[in-house]
Amino acid sequence: MTERHRTRRGAVHWAIATAIALVGAVTLFAGAALPAAADAGTETITGVSPVTGSAGGGTVLTFTGTNMTSAPTAVTIGANAATNIIRDSDTQFRATTPPGTGTGLAIVVSFGAFQPTVTQTFSYVAPAISSLSANAGSVDGGGSLVITGTNFGPSGAPSVKFGNTTATVQSNSNTSITVTIPPATAAGLVGVVVTVNTLTSNAASYTYQSAPAPSITSLNPATDTAGETVVITGNNFAPPGATNCPVNVQVQWGAAPISTGNCTLVSNTTIWVVVPAGTGTAQVTVTTVNGTSNAVTFTYGTGAAAPTITQVSPPSGPSGISLTITGMNLAPSSGVTVGGVNCPLTSGSGTQLVCTVPNGTVTGSPVNVVVTALGGNATATNAFTYTTASIVTVTNVVPNICPLAGGNTLYVYGTGFIDGSTSVRVNGVLASNLDVISSTELSVTCPGQVSYGTYDLSVTVGGNVSANTLADNVTYQAGGAAPIITDVEPATGPTSGGTAVTITGSNFVSPASVTFHGIAATSVVVVNSTTITAVTPAHAATGLVNVTVSTGNGTDTDAYAFTYTNTAAPTVTGISPTSGPIGTQITITGTNFLNATGVTIGGVAATFSVTNSTTMTAVVASGTPLGVVNVIVTTPFGTSANTAADNFTNTSTKTITTTLTGTFTLIGWVGIDNISVADALRGGPNGPSGGTNDITAQVSVVWGFNNATQTFVAYFPASANVPGANDLTALQSGLGYFIGLNNPGSVVQWTYALGA
After folding, report:
1. Is 680 strand, coil or helix?
2. What whole-number distance in Å separates Cα of residue 753 and Cα of residue 237?
3. Could you tell me where the beta strands, DSSP code E, fall in 13-150?
4. Is 11 exposed, middle or buried (0-12, 13-18, 19+ CB in 10 A)?
5. How far is CA 228 from each of CA 223, 253, 342, 348, rounded to the nearest angstrom?
């Protein structure tokens, strides 16, 4: 081959030519065997597993062999030392891989000066993304997204990008990453990639959607006087970064914008405003970077509107529980009384107040609930009845073991639990992070103790304490390494439970407990320090759940490690849009989509992505028949029926869609023979009309090879006037071309006219 065009593009020509030449010419050596030591020992290595792992390190290798009466003094993977070398027996030890890159790396084990032969090699593999918990969201970003896949490495190893924007990693395991979705400058499709120690994953598609404008649902009160406070309720008041008004959020009150000090951004759905001077009526709107809301009418009156009470919940209970009062014009409120005794407020708005029921003097007889607000008093007559002490019981604690320092999560089961009125103690020590899941289930963080032993766990509700029984005992055990989960297989099962799973990891000791979304698994067996078997419990809903292993040494949770599925076949109830050409992305709605294994449109397999159990997307593939076709979804539990709701009309003429990713994508041209490169990048001879798209601005270069002259030829959309640069003028059917993108992190869908 000869070299041409050493102008401003010459270096690129040389680099590609050199790279192609090297592909078949370079031989890489995994490493030479070390000579036997003079004082050779008797240890042998017969096997190593696994032989691949994350570039971030953290993979636990298990070595088998013979005569290993002591742990190795060193283990290296390539040039880097492994850590956490632990001897299990004379025939097995474990070591944790360091961060690194490369394939076919020599594994060297040293017992002092002796290094037994290890025939296996180790390869660092790139991370791989299998799914995203959501495939679309607002350009405002925010919220959490879970990336599922493999080889993400230990905590802190991966970095994640949405297009060119780096996301904040909240937490990760080797198979799951939770990130905060970064904002985007514009709506559109980007690629989500994971990088671990320079190795980068495949790109998963994520679509940024235009952020919704704010909307107002009510003013409370809608009639009042100047100087009083009005609660504006609605949606989308606080885009990311918004902390106050009027700086980030503006409220327009008739002709007057609300100024600093008279406007408080409470939440995404609530704004408090001091009414400015005025008479008659005023139109109230809220404006953010995403637009302006609908206008709601406010009427100037002679005083604040009177409060009203529509519901008191619960209607009965002991002192100490939370009482919710629903109504209108309740805020700002100066107080609530129950039976004439002050009920301390814990939260409030114009339509709802929450207070803690005070000690009552009358049991079994209803008493009044009174709200005092700016517009006067509202009384709910005989709305609450004090009962005798509620029955609080503890029937089970999972797990019932804690390390001496505490810190692991306990799930407590029983009766009489009330949110906002409950506390938990172990041996008299208050537990933290209380979450009342229901009246029969709560979770807390186990508190620390000063000595080992078995202690009573008690639950207090409104002054009533559960009885001490064997069912509420918690045992504090001597410490060791906390358990670590690396994998759960199989990762799916029905909501009815009964799936036998194998949990792999490290530091597993007996006794151990396993929970799925806080529900105790059955038949838990600690096989060895790296393996636990268990049977999944039943679960009320489909979806991803956490898997937790607890021992006396601590707790580890693998976030979203198991998916509960519905055993019913999927159904398709609608698609949108209902027509379009090849390359159209359609949204499919229906039921039981989790764990979908395939989507066909007109009998042709389509690429697809599952959003949740009722929503998924698919792309109409090349080869889909023209006219009306059916969209069919398949899961392990069946295939959706053919109905009118799944009809899609393929309006294509003759087009094809190619996905371009990374720095260069190699394509085989199947478009119109001898078409100009400029027309091809616009989708065909007629440009981007008729459903094709113009990708000219996203392409940096198109490379080809001229067999006749044995030279590389190129087309640069942005440099048409560079001498000799655009000697690639047309694309020929059947030949291969490299398409380079301006943004290597993007994913570009290119639709162009097919050849004859």
Report:
1. helix
2. 45
3. 44-49, 52-54, 60-66, 74-77, 80-81, 83-89, 92-96, 105-110, 121-125, 128-132, 136-138, 144-150
4. exposed
5. 10, 14, 25, 17
- CA nearest to 542, candidates 500, 492, 504: 492
Output the six-digit token pair for 747.
């994913």
Q: How far apart are CA 206 and CA 481, in angstroms?
A: 39
Q: Tell me, what amino acid is at 21?
A: A
Q: Which of 237, 242, 230, 241 is nearest to 215 (CA)?
A: 237
What is d(CA 75, CA 96) in angstroms, rounded to the nearest whole number? 9
pLDDT per residue over 99-142, tens digit each? 999 999 999 999 998 999 999 999 999 999 999 988 888 887 87
Structure token digits, residue 697 = 């601005």
The single-letter DSSP state of residue 679 is: H
Residue 11 is inside which H or E element, if any?
helix 10-23
d(CA 34, CA 512): 43
pTM of the model: 0.35
One DSSP character per residue, 204-217 reads: EEEEEEPPPPPEEE
Beta strands per DSSP E along 329-391: 333-338, 341-342, 345-348, 352-356, 366-373, 376-386
Between the alpha carbon of residue 323 and those of residues 69, 104, 348, 374, 378, the distances in Å are: 66, 66, 12, 21, 16
Q: Is there a contact between 727 and 714 (Cβ–Cβ < 8 Å)?
A: yes
Longest dimension (CA), the chain: 103
pLDDT digits (tens, 9 = 90+) for 158-179: 999 998 899 999 888 889 999 9
Asked if 425 contacts 402 with a C-beta cutoff of 8 angstroms, the reply is no
As a whole number of angstroms, the distance between CA 437 and CA 715 comes to 62
CA–CA separation, 395 and 684 (whole Å): 71
| Distance of alpha carbon 138 from alpha carbon 239, whole angstroms | 10
The type of residue at 541 is A
